Every structure is written in structure tokens, then in C-alpha cells.
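Comment thread on ticket #2218

A.B. wrote:
> Attaching the input chain for the structure job we discussed in standup.
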Amino acid sequence: MDRFPTDGYGSNRDAGAPPAVVSRSRFRSFGPVLQQPLLRRILPGMAVSALGDGMSMVAVAWLAVQIAPADEAATWTGLAVAAYTLPATLGAALFSRLVRRFSGAGLVAVDASLRALALGTIAVLAVAGRLSPAGYVMLLAVSSLLHAWGSAGTYTLVAELLPDRDRVAGNALISTFNQAAIVVGPALAGAVTTLAGPGWVIGIDAASFAILAVSCAIAAARPGVAAAPTASAVPEQAAAGGWRTILRQPRLLGLLAITCVFFFLYGPVEVALPIYIAHDLHGSSVLLGAYWTAFGIGAVVGGLGAGLLRNRRLSAVVVAIIIGWGAALLPIALTDAVWAGLLGLSIGGLIYGPFTAICVALFQRTSPPHMLSRVLATRTAVTIPSTALGTLAGGPVVTAIGAQPTLLASALLTIALGVTVAAARWVASDLDRLSARWRRAGANGAATGSGRRG
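C.D. wrote:
> Ran it. Output below, let me know if you need it in another format.
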């Protein structure tokens, strides 16, 4: 997931309430975003790249299934999917000194360039029939090394170029690109894979990242277009506090911890689903694309409707999303009916849709501007391995108990996580009320005693 802000949501809003991502005039609010010169030049490249990444949701796993020995398909699929994301955490630490002075556009450009090169190499080798499972995993790992910084650069760019009042629309537009790509990308990838093979789909993904890298480089080089100061404009010690900023905010730290567990429990789904479709249902890549498209349609609707949650507290929304996603997996885990699985994933996407926008919004809102890229890179570096580690665990689990039982285990454990968080929230709320009652009683007793002494 997370493939699943700041003052833009209004400085007077309670930090516990989810931001309004979509307002009554949401389409009109995109106007200032599209009128910003640098964003106007980069956004088309982001849209194309999002489509390529949406296609990779099918191609990365399907290519692993094709090139791996039949009895090792689950293991190599888990390794491939994890390699496409997990090394981002290592890259966040290794390359922090190299990229800390880059603007948001620069961060996006270097990440997109590396992805284009590594994925292009995979495509050439796959089409030539010379791609081994081990080589495939290694190249996927290289492609993801700068992903934490590229993801941070995307939302840092929004914070650099837009005033507070327009950041909501900027975040929502980028989020909509990613969610819409899940609708179109998997279905398109399924068709291309059937006609030409998954290697060609990886090649299209590489080309989409090349387009993004070129658009960022050209836009940043245009005269008269300059980004606002970022971490490069402040002392190094101030820019190095991504973790310290998060640790000083209990809400952010708690949200980050819950997100990590949530994403870990989701990870096995990315292994179990393609194995379930290929081996249990004897389906094709087109069917896998249809499942992810169903999820994407729900996610787009859910993301655009996130504004309906603006009067709810963030903790309640997080609990509802976690429990709802787990419940949405039950149809595909308990029945072989394709329509039930498609319906379940579409509802799951609808429920999950607002999650990323809410989380990123809170991080943008709370983080100092000069530390924003650091904080967002730290968040990405922590959450990405959660899904990837879950994916790695999914390979042996699928091999041991089967694809559909793995989906069921993921669903039940996710529901249990949501119930646990809800119970902890209820206990904490009761303790807060009890503490407040004691403080009031103590204050009243002190006032009474003071009156008697007088």
C-alpha cells in the first residue's frame, strides 16, 4: 500500500481531526495548482509515471511467476515484489548526504532516472530471454534505492511551490494520479502482458520514469522558475532531524507505528493474490489486472470522498479503515467466486482511499518547512519496508499453507489490529476523562479548604 499536511488544512483545525481533502468546490480548487508554472510542466510527467507504476503492479509479480521454477514461484514472487520497494529504506540512509541539498524537483528527477535505467535493463533482458530470477531481484532492488527520496520530493515540491491554502488541492491531485493509475494501469498491463509479455510492460514503466525525469530536469532549468528554500537553505544540523521531529509528536509516532503494522499485514496479499489467481483459479494476467483495477476504482472514489470525513477524529478514521480493509479481504479469502473477490477489493479500495492523504496531510501540517523533505523521507523509509517485509514473509507462508489461507490470515489479523487499536483508544480516552475528573476534584477540594481557612 502506499504506492498507499500542513497548514493547507487550516491552522485552526484540531490535529486529531482528518483534513478535508475534497471540498464542495474541489474541482475549482485545482486551478491555482495547474497555474503554478513549475507544477504545470511537471504534473504531466507525474501522471504518465503513475500510469507506468500502475502497470508494474501486475508486471513485476507476473514476470517473477513466469521466470521462476514452478515450485519456487511464491518465494521469487515475494522477493521480487519486496525488492521493488524495500531497498528504499537503505537508500534513505545511504544517500542522505548526497541528496539533502536537492529541491523537490531534483529529488523526483534522480529517483526517476535511476528507475528508468534499472527497469529498462530488466525489460531488455526479459524480452531477450536472458533474465534470471536472481538478476531480476537485484535490478529491482537497484531501481528502488532512491524511492524514499523521490516520494518525499513529490510532496516537498507541493509544499515548496504552493501557499498553505492550495496544498490540499496539490496533494489531492497527485494522490488522484496514483489512484487513477491503479484503475487503468493493471488492466492495461494485463492486456499488454497477454499480447507481448510482462517484459514489455516493464519497458513501458521504464519509459514513463524517463519522461518524468526529463520533465523535472527541463522544468527546473527554466529561467525565472525557482523553488522555495528547502533543507539546503538551512544549517545541516537543522535538516538532519527527521526522526527527532517525529519523536517529538506523539500523534505522528503513534500513527507511524500503526501504519507500519497495517502495511506489514497487507504485504502477503501482494504475493498471495497473483499465486491464487494463477494456480488456484488458473486465471491469466488479465484477471489479476481486473482485481487491481477493482481496487483502484474504489480507491479513487474513496480518496475523492475523503472530505466527508473532515468532522471525524483521525484516530477513529484510522481504526475504521484498518478494520474495513480486513473485512473487505474476506470475500476473496472465503470463496472462489470471481465476482465476490472483485466486489471485495473494490470496497477495500473505497475504504482505504483516504488513508494516505490523511497521513501525509498530518505530516505536512506538523513538520517545519525546512525539515519537510527529511520528515517525509523518514516516513517513507519506515513504511515501505513494512509492506516489503510482509511481502517477504508472504512467500514462505503461501508455500506452507497456500494462497487463499494466507489471504484469510491477513484479513483476520488486520481486523484484530483494528480492534486492538480501538480498544487502546477507548482505554486511553477513559483514563483521560478519569484524570480530568481527579484534577477537577483536587481543584475543588483546594478551593474549599482555602475558603475554610479564610
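A.B. wrote:
> Thanks. Noting for the ticket: DSSP finds 20 helices and no strands in the chain.
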